[in-house]
User: Fold this.
Amino acid sequence: MKIASVADIKARLSAYLKVSAKQPVVVTRNGKAVAVLLGVENDDELERLLLAHSPKLRALLDAAERRIEEGGGIGHEEFWHRVETSRKANGSRHKRKSNG
Assistant:
């Protein structure tokens, strides 16, 4: 992990972008961390990173977790049973992948 000030980043942005492809670069202002430069290799990685920091997605997941804790969810086996039933009803040829 590399650490650099905002002023240094501004002066040498291209160089720090190259470094961020190999390791995170922590950006500091007045000695305190304020951001991180992270290199991304492809669109999938970028999408995962953006979703991981999405307040909207986090709110949806938190609400779903609360519903499950209140008894509003279904179990793992029931979920897959419903998926299989739905696939058969729709004539799908896809099969559930086995975990073992």
Remarks:
- The mean pLDDT is 88.
